[in-house]
Design a protein that fits this description.
This protein is α+β, with helices and mostly antiparallel strands. The protein has 4 helices and 4 strands, in the order H-E-H-E-H-E-E-H.
């Protein structure tokens, strides 16, 4: 039996939207530009609008040799850093589709994090109800 590809795509996309809502507050995207050149905001507009629509923190920063992520990870400018809970995750560039980069990262890494088990467990008390039974009178056979 085959399924409709539109339905499959809808299910996958809706699952991704749930994951994005779950992890958006943990994500931050930083746009990095060359410190000596004027900022061309149109290079960062797509990322800024995407972040605004999905409640992801977005910042613009100048390239800084003192920051390890800038010095070690960036090959060319402009670039973007993705941070999760304040920790560096990856670097990507404007020619890459931002939505795809975020989607791939969330599905590959964040969704694989084991969910914490509940620390509390509740047991319901057992309730017993009284048993109301009426005794039947047995007819006695009386000799007449």
């Amino acid at each position: 039996m085959t399924t409709n590809p539109f339905i499959e795509n809808y299910v996958v996309n809706s699952q991704y939207q749930v994951l994005l809502k779950r992890y958006a507050h943990k994500l931050m995207i930083v746009g990095v530009y060359h410190w000596s050149k004027p900022v061309r905001e149109e290079q960062f507009d797509e990322a800024r609008l995407y972040c605004r629509d999905h409640h992801i923190t977005f910042k613009l920063e100048a390239f800084n040799n003192g920051i390890e992520e800038d010095r070690e990870m960036i090959e060319r400018l402009p670039a973007f850093h993705l941070y999760v809970d304040g920790e560096y995750a990856l670097t990507f560039y404007p020619e890459q589709i931002l939505a795809t980069v975020v989607k791939d990262y969330i599905i590959t890494y964040l969704d694989k994090i084991p969910k914490p088990k509940a620390k509390w467990s509740f047991t319901l008390p057992t309730i017993s109800f009284p048993n109301f039974r009426f005794k039947r009178k047995l007819a006695s056979s009386s000799p007449d």
